[in-house]
Predict the 3D structure of the following.
Amino acid sequence: MQAEQLTHTPNGHTLHHTQIQSACGTYLVYDTRNDDTQIGETNKIEVLHVNTHTTQNIYTCVPSSIYGPGVGAATFATNQLTTLFIHGIKNADAQKPYGMTRRTGVAIALQHPQLPIYMDARNVYAPFTPGALRGGTHSHSWHVSGEFISFTYNDFVLEQATQPDADKDLRVVGVMFPKPVEVAIDAAGENNSGEMFSVIVSQVQNTATPGSDDIEKAFDECWLGNQRKLAFQGHVRTTANALQTEIFVIDLPNDLTQVGVSPLEGTAVTRCGVPKGVTQRRLTHTPKGISTFRHWLRSNATGTVVYFLMEDAAGVTQLHEVRIGDGRIKQLSFHASNIHSPFNVHPSAKHAVYFVANNLVLLDIESNTPRVLLESNPDIQLTGIPHFCNQSQTIYFNAYVGCEQGSFIQIFKIAY
């Protein structure tokens, strides 16, 4: 099959791992990174018109330097022409560079380009504020309803804490929803108010008890269809005290503003508390854990199945599924070599797409049959995560392409 190159300018065009296409199908959103590690020095969010192949700059972060603030990892809302992306803290400099605890979520409505909307509030000074966080949100993912946004989070206050009894800054999963939060703006520029009320919904421990369902890290989640539920990856400790990754499920109550065991806003030495009524349970109990290769979980449209990567008996990274109801795991792919990219699953749950042996591969999930859509090509180097088009039998993907100025990440499409 022939792939068509959609972008050509000598800069990066990096697609995020999910929700890169507008609900109407007209636009793809991307940041101008040319390397996954360069969010801190990236200053533009752009959209590509899929029919005309024209591009538009919708946000430029000013000022910008190698230290930040930085923007990247843009997603489209599921029900409106609004994008959401990581935005570093505006006061970034050599002493306070972009980092995991120094970023927030900013949105742009396409009808109002260059007008940033701060989504999650941030308050890093006591007294802290319920509904505001104290660090950095990232990897934002919209619920199908458009009402909720999930994210992963690291805590600046705990990262800086020197008290011996302070909680560790462990990555956790959170959710935000429409409810403005006002925060006192400080002269240093660390704080910001937000349009959303943010809470942490995963329960982690500084040190998990070996052999228990305690976790020391929660990350790389997905919504379970249209339900008020999330699946996420968590680090547990085996009876031999070894870390391994398993899948967990969170159920969200109707009201996420109610205080649970500890304050939602946290303290100087404790994490932000989980709201009352949130429940967390372990879904998988695998012999060696799911794959530690970085990937994000995916769900079918009804939220009854979660897809993930795990090594098979021969040690090859393959696609698997686990059923929410009974925890039954099924291997779906049977490649001779590793899947070496994160994957995406079509909303119909009939196909998955990913990279194997530098080929772009479409997997028929029902028959476990793979089909190579694009063979390894010395002229382009596949990178990132391939995506299904919302409206047609098309896949969008990133690849490096050489030109006089160097090699740059471009956007391609291919039919299947």
About this structure: The longest strand covers residues 172-181. The chain has one helix and 27 strands. The longest helix spans residues 156-160.
